[in-house]
Amino acid sequence: MIKHQDKVISTIIVGMILISLSIAVISIFINYNIGFIIGLTIGTVTGVFQIMHIGKTINKALDKTPNQAKKYAVKSSMFRYLIIVLVVIVSVTINRDSIIGIIVGLFVLKLSIYLMPLIKSFYSE
């Protein structure tokens, strides 16, 4: 189970990196804005942290009773939301241009999951 889970997570991460690089290249040609690219990078790194943390949460929750697992999963989810809020707050105070890039970078995780069958077909060959 853990090997399969690690393979799924690594496929999602590879997809996130490929999608983020594609968005960065397109944004350079359309409207070069270093703040957007920095935000995209920060959002993508935060998304990678999220998916890795979700994997660890699942592994630890499986060793607990159902009630303990539920509490642990909720606590871990709140921790991930707190990290997102902190990243957004820090980024807005440092560079306002990066906020759109951060939001796009965070959505890259979801896009990578939706496109996972396509990414997996290229990645596994």
TrEMBL record:
Domain of life: Bacteria
Gene Ontology cellular component list: plasma membrane
Alphabetic keyword roster: Cell membrane, Membrane, Transmembrane, Transmembrane helix
Entries under InterPro entries matching the protein: ATP_synth_I (IPR005598)
Pfam families in the cross-refs: ATP-synt_I (PF03899)
Membrane topology value: Multi-pass membrane protein
Subcellular location field: Cell membrane
Residues spanning the membrane: 12-30, 36-58, 78-94, 100-119
Protein name: ATP synthase I subunit
Annotated organism of origin: Natranaerovirga pectinivora
